[in-house]
Amino acid sequence: NAGVTQTPKFQVLKTGQSMTLQCAQDMNHEYMSWYRQDPGMGLRLIHYSVGAGITDQGEVPNGYNVSRSTTEDFPLRLLSAAPSQTSVYFCASSYSRRGTGELFFGEGSRLTVL
Amino acid sequence: LAKTTQPISMDSYEGQEVNITCSHNNIATNDYITWYQQFPSQGPRFIIQGYKTKVTNEVASLFIPADRKSSTLSLPRVSLSDTAVYYCLVGDTGGFKTIFGAGTRLFVKA
């Protein structure tokens, strides 16, 4: 049972480039979310989804897009990378549609924007 | 959005009980309180969740007073491996925009 899988684990981008962080879960969870964590800081919610076809913005959505075409996958797209988006990104899922049930996290994707 | 406030850091010694308190004045009526543990370079891991009074599992206890405006995570007899960041989590009014606080850095010394 893989749980929540994030790819890539590490990525370096140049300013203005775009890319997609992949997130997949095999637990049939309805709720999925993306967080970013800056050095020494807590996690901030970027976007979340309560089911296929349903997404909404979190605290810090600017510069990011998401889609949820299947229950399993929840990719995060950076449209035009900026140095301020240098961070560690965590994907999480939960059996609870409320998002306050137990969240299962991936191992993180470390992104550096030059 | 509901906000949480926790101490920035705490120190303890092996074998001691550690209590970390979180304030959440704007918690919604139906929201649960959840605590997570995070080690460096890893995603957070669920510790315990509760709604009111007291909840206990194999690793921790969670105390929630009647007004639910705060909660206390209790770690009995900590060890060096409990050195981590601990987050208190509550949902907003709609329950979807889950907010992590800044976390409490617990350092356990030998």
Can you put this structure into words, describing what you see?
The complex is a heterodimer of chains A (114) and B (110). With 114 residues, chain A is an all-beta fold. In chain A, the strands form two sheets. In chain A, strands 2, 4, 5, 6, 9, 10 and 11 form a seven-stranded mixed β-sheet that branches. Chain A has a four-stranded antiparallel β-sheet with strand order 1-3-8-7, with no helix packed on it. In chain A, 39% of the residues are buried. With 110 residues, chain B is mainly beta. In chain B, the strands form two sheets. In chain B, strands 1, 3, 4, 8, 9 and 10 form a six-stranded mixed β-sheet that branches. A four-stranded antiparallel β-sheet of chain B has the order 2-7-6-5, with no helix packed on it. In chain B, strand 3 and strand 4 form a beta hairpin. Chain B is globular, with a radius of gyration of 13 Å. Chains A and B meet through strand 5 and strand 10 of A and strand 4, strand 8 and strand 9 of B.
Whole-number average pLDDT of chain B? 90
| Uncertain stretches of chain A | none
Q: Using DSSP, what is the number of strands of chain A? A: 11
Mean residue pLDDT of chain A: 93
What's the number of extended β-strand segments of chain B?
10
Shape of chain B: globular
Query: How many helix segments of chain A?
Result: 0
Number of helix segments of chain B? 0
- Poorly predicted sequence stretches spanning 5 or more consecutive residues of chain B: none
Counting helices, strands and paired strands, the structural category of chain B is: mainly beta
